[in-house]
Design goal:
- With about 425 residues, the protein is α/β, with parallel strands linked by helices.
- The protein has 2 domains: about 1-10 and about 20-275, Alpha-Beta Horseshoe (pyruvate-formate lyase- activating enzyme); about 345-425, Arc Repressor Mutant, subunit A, CATH 1.10.10.
- Helices cover about 35% and strands about 20% of the residues.
- It is built from 16 helices and 18 strands.
- It has helices spanning about 30-35, 70-90, 110-120, 145-150, 165-170, 180-190, 210-220, 250-265, 320-330, 345-360, 365-375, 380, 385-390, 405-410, 410-415, 420-430; strands spanning about 25-30, 45-50, 50, 65, 95-100, 130-135, 155-160, 195-200, 225-230, 265-270, 275, 295-300, 305, 310, 340-345, 365, 395, 400-405.
- Strands 10-11-9-8-7-6-5-2-12 form a 9-stranded mixed β-sheet. Strands 1-15-14-13 form a 4-stranded antiparallel β-sheet. Strands 16-18-17 form a 3-stranded antiparallel β-sheet.
- The protein is globular, with a radius of gyration of 21 Å.
- It binds iron/sulfur cluster.
- Iron/sulfur cluster binds next to loops.
């Protein structure tokens, strides 16, 4: 039987757990000690470049538009200092996956991109040997940059397009021209990247079902390997909160129609947001990175790093002047051997994270693995899991709990419903700057 057990389908995007709004000041934790007991043979390397050529009205990411070139150069110099400190204090053995994001890292000039990859390699990371992703925007794509990314071993390019209808992107506070989008897609097709991903947004002001499906048709026509469909969330301090436009919430209808279109066009659904072409093969590493069990090293202001018991980063802000001052603080940082902002995860939160990541991210929750790691029965510990099964939103097969199609549709309700009470409290009390 299938039924709905949530009042609000669009509660929030459980991209990571605990959410960054639960981070607070920490008491200067020593980096070597934090990583001493961690496994370091399949780490995730995330590099954050907090720069874009424009600030989109819907975006709450840690980024600023059009910084001076000397700020970018100074940032790269600091990134190099941070890298050398990480090498000395953490001594990563091997990376299983890598992503360069932001912001729009393709905002960098070619000589700055060269420098960026020199820094990445100094850490011992070789993009050509692992799944390696890089974010671009239509306006920052050039032949020279794509050649460089390809030569450096990047195999996945992710481009935020959001919509192929100019009035829609304008209403989203992103003045983007379609000819720029098509030119970027044409150029991308000329390079042998294994995966091209396009991000789209549904629920935009002035969007109709037809105009939304037109955007989905365009990514299908371009035969891209991956599509991410993001529901629009109007977030505090972002540009579109000022527009005060009201319209009916059609997000779920738009989502379902687009899903059907993609499924009937050779894509399979990996998660609520992610659709991937059937039969894609990914680079193999000695050991694959597991988001539930392996750590993440974040480089740069705004990048998060995860050990089992501590998640940390620089401070977080959305308003331009606050982001700018955090970046300046990062550039002026005298050393990188301790951590002063983040959250310590007790055993209960570590277990909860394992459950949330597993349930929401395609792999499913391996109940035996959970019990081996934590000595508990997840179904008993989290009654919501049983409720999901009863409601037809999840199935248990061969010891793995996986969301059904109906469950995947409700991911943005299920994730937040699994948050602990103390984390919910911290998120509520967070003062966004
Ligand atoms: S949506 Fe992308 S391009 Fe726009 S401001 Fe955010 S990171 Fe930059």
């Amino acid at each position: 039987m299938v039924k709905t057990i949530f009042n609000n389908i669009y509660e929030g995007y459980a991209y990571s757990y605990p959410h960054k709004h639960s981070y607070r000041r920490l008491n200067n934790l020593q980096l070597p000690l934090l990583w001493k007991e961690e496994r370091k043979d399949a780490l995730f390397l995330y590099v954050h470049l907090p720069f874009c050529e424009m600030r989109c009205g819907f975006c709450n990411l840690f980024t600023i538009a059009n910084p001076q070139s000397d700020m970018v150069d100074a940032y790269l110099q600091t990134l190099e200092r941070e890298t050398m400190a990480i090498k000395a204090h953490i001594a990563p053995q091997a990376f299983g996956q890598m992503a360069v994001g932001g912001g729009t890292p393709a905002f960098l000039q070619p000589h700055q991109l060269e420098k960026l990859f020199t820094i990445i390699r100094k850490l011992g990371a070789r993009p050509e040997d692992m799944p390696s992703s890089f974010e671009v925007s239509p306006a920052t794509v050039t032949r020279e940059k794509l050649r460089l990314l390809n030569e450096q071993g990047i195999d996945r390019i992710s481009m935020g397009v959001q919509s192929f209808v100019e009035t829609e992107v304008k209403a989203l506070g992103r003045p983007q021209k379609n000819n720029e989008v098509y030119a970027a897609l044409d150029l991308l097709k000329q390079y042998p990247f294994q995966t091209v991903n396009i991000d789209l947004i549904y629920g935009a002001y002035a969007q109709t079902l037809n105009s939304w499906l037109h955007s989905v048709q365009e990514v299908i026509r371009y035969d891209v390997e991956e599509v991410f469909m993001y529901p629009l969330y109007v977030r505090p301090l972002t540009g579109i909160t000022k527009l005060e436009q009201q319209q009916e919430d059609n997000r779920f209808i738009f989502y379902r129609e687009a899903k059907q279109l993609l499924l009937s066009s050779g894509y399979r659904q990996v998660s609520m947001r992610m659709f991937r072409k059937e039969g894609l093969i990914h680079k193999q590493t000695a050991r694959s990175y597991s988001c539930q069990e392996d750590g993440m090293i974040g480089l740069g202001a705004g990048a998060r790093s995860y050990t089992r018991s501590v998640h940390y980063s620089s401070e977080y802000a959305v308003a331009r002047h606050n982001i700018r001052s955090i970046i300046e603080k990062y550039i002026a940082k005298p050393h990188f051997n301790e951590v002063d902002y983040g959250i310590e995860l007790n055993k209960e939160e570590q277990q909860r994270r394992f459950v949330i990541k597993s349930v929401l991210h395609g792999t499913g929750l391996n109940l035996n693995r959970y019990s081996t790691l934590y000595g508990n029965d997840a179904m008993q510990q989290y009654p919501l899991l049983q409720e999901l099964v009863t409601a037809g939103m999840a199935l248990v097969q061969n010891g793995i709990l996986r969301l059904t199609e109906h469950g995947i549709d409700h991911s943005d309700a299920i994730g937040p419903a699994l948050y602990s009470t103390p984390i919910k409290q911290l998120i509520t009390e967070f003062e966004l700057q």
